């Protein structure tokens, strides 16, 4: 790739569009690939690197460490995101400081107030989890769609987060718990062990799948007994005959 890139840089092309025009001109040597990003996939750093313009795609850039970048940003004395965006376009921004820090430092990002040092930190001032959940449950929302509509309606108090699963990671269980509907995703439910659940179900004396379906719809099924045991206990599942204790076991 090094020799090919050196040759291409000598052409003085300034963009991908100019590269394509050159490729279609018939003047390209046969040992220079028309699709260098595919041929040199392991070494590819973007068109800016290939053409020598210095413009490298964000994912291939080496950014400054988050803490160091934030310290630099705070030293600018900017008061908000609009001032940051205006400054980022002036040409004074170092190459290793991203113009869009929320994307680059996604895992560490805590808001523009934290980035610029203005003191307006995202997430500071949220209600305690129990108080926030109690308030939300009082709204009578029935599902995720209702929550999203409320969160974007303008009626949501400022100290109630739109993304409670992120803000209250340690306490978060499910949207059903947050809204008070009792609806919990299977992935978040805690079922009895397979052996304990099967022993309980066998004690019911159900004789076939139809009786099981009637039972699970009756409202008598404990929440820690899955309605779809074949899904919940995939590796241990041997059929409804084994589950119900009728003796009919799947092959």
Description:
By secondary structure, the protein is mostly helical. Helix content is 41%, strand content 0%. It has helices at residues 2-9, 16-23, 36-39, 47-51, 66-74, 81-88, 101-104, 112-116, 129-137, 144-151, 164-167, 175-179, 194-202, 209-216, 229-232, 240-244. The longest helix has 9 residues, at 66-74.
Q: What's the total helix number?
A: 16
Structural class: mainly alpha
Strand content: under 5%
Give the CA-based shape: flat
For the biggest sheet, the summary is: none
Count of discrete structural domains: 4
- N-to-C CA distance: 57 Å
Radius of gyration: 29 Å
- Let me know the number of strands: 0
Uncertain stretches of 5 or more adjacent residues: none
Q: Give the overall pLDDT as a whole number.
A: 82
Helix content: 40-55%
Series of secondary-structure elements, N-terminal to C-terminal: HHHHHHHHHHHHHHHH
List the SSEs and their pairings.
Layout: H1 2-9, H2 16-23, H3 36-39, H4 47-51, H5 66-74, H6 81-88, H7 101-104, H8 112-116, H9 129-137, H10 144-151, H11 164-167, H12 175-179, H13 194-202, H14 209-216, H15 229-232, H16 240-244
Summarize the structure.
The protein has 16 helices and no strands. It has 251 residues and is mainly α.
Task: Please describe the structure with a list of short key phrases separated by commas or semicolons.
mainly alpha, 4 domains, 251 residues
């Amino acid at each position: 790739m090094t020799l090919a890139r050196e040759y291409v840089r000598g052409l003085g092309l300034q963009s991908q569009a100019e590269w394509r025009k050159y490729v279609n001109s018939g003047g390209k040597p046969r040992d220079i690939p028309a699709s260098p990003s595919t041929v040199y996939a392991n070494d590819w750093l973007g068109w800016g690197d290939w053409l020598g313009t210095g413009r490298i795609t964000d994912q291939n850039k080496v950014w400054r460490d988050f803490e160091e970048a934030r310290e630099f940003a705070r030293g600018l004395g900017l008061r908000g995101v609009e001032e940051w965006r205006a400054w980022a376009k002036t040409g004074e921004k170092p190459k290793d400081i991203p113009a869009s820090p929320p994307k680059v430092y996604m895992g560490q990002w805590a808001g523009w107030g934290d980035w610029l040092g203005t003191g307006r930190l995202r997430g500071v001032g949220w209600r305690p989890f129990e108080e926030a959940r109690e308030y939300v449950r009082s709204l009578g929302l029935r599902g995720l769609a209702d929550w999203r509509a409320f969160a974007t309606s303008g009626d949501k108090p400022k100290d109630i987060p739109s993304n409670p699963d992120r803000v209250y990671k340690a306490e978060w269980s499910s949207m059903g718990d947050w809204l008070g509907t009792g609806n919990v995703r299977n992935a978040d439910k805690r079922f009895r062990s397979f052996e304990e659940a099967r022993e309980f179900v066998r004690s019911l004396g159900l004789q076939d799948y139809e009786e099981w379906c009637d039972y699970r719809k009756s409202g008598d099924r404990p929440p820690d007994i899955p309605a779809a045991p074949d899904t919940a206990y995939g590796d241990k599942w041997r059929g409804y005959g084994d589950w119900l204790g009728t003796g009919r076991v799947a092959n």
